[in-house]
């Protein structure tokens, strides 16, 4: 996992088409494509601006449906994998909602787009489980 940047919820930021923190900068065209794809998939109800779709990583003050970053910050941990309650009800719901988009992504996305979204979002539970397993063997 050395090349991954795993968010508190298990998303792999390094694979995310929205992630723009250096050295993962994206062009306006790439961000526009992502905004269009997000609308087609149903992640957004309209095509948003490049500024709105771009992300430099989770921060406690950012909106999060599950308040995962705030929860991790409050507990002094990096990811949910380090929490004694993992997987809590919030994360179980997060995994379920994320996976509810997977069939639509398979239908709408090209193979390359789907592979990217799979790595970025649909493997979040596996990412956290791997971190948890590693943490418990060290």
Protein model, in words:
The protein contains 7 helices and no strands. 51% of the residues lie in helices and 0% in strands. The model has no long low-confidence stretch (mean pLDDT 92). It has 138 residues and is mainly α. It has one domain. The chain has helices at 28-41, 50-53, 68-75, 89-100, 102-108, 111-122, 124-137.
Q: What class do helices, strands and sheet pairing give?
A: mainly alpha
Q: Count the DSSP helices.
A: 7
Total of domains:
1
Return residue spans where pLDDT drops below 50 for at least 5 consecutive residues: none
Task: Give the structure's gist in a few sentences.
This protein has 138 residues and is mainly alpha-helical. 51% of the residues lie in helices and 0% in strands.
Supply database-style keywords:
7 helices, 138 residues, mainly alpha
What's the helix and strand layout?
Layout: H1 28-41, H2 50-53, H3 68-75, H4 89-100, H5 102-108, H6 111-122, H7 124-137
């Amino acid at each position: 996992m050395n090349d991954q940047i795993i968010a508190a919820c298990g998303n792999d930021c390094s694979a995310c088409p929205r992630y723009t923190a250096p050295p993962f900068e994206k062009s306006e065209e790439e961000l526009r494509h992502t905004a269009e794809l997000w609308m087609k998939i149903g992640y957004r109800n309209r095509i948003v601006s490049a500024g709105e779709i771009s992300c430099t990583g989770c921060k406690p003050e950012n909106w999060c449906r599950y308040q995962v970053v705030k929860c991790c910050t409050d507990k002094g941990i990096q990811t949910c994998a380090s929490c004694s309650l993992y997987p809590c009800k919030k994360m179980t719901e997060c995994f379920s909602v994320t996976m509810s988009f997977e069939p639509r992504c398979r239908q709408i996305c090209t193979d390359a787009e789907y592979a990217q979204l799979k790595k970025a979002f649909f493997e979040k539970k596996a990412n956290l489980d791997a971190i948890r397993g590693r943490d418990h063997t060290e």
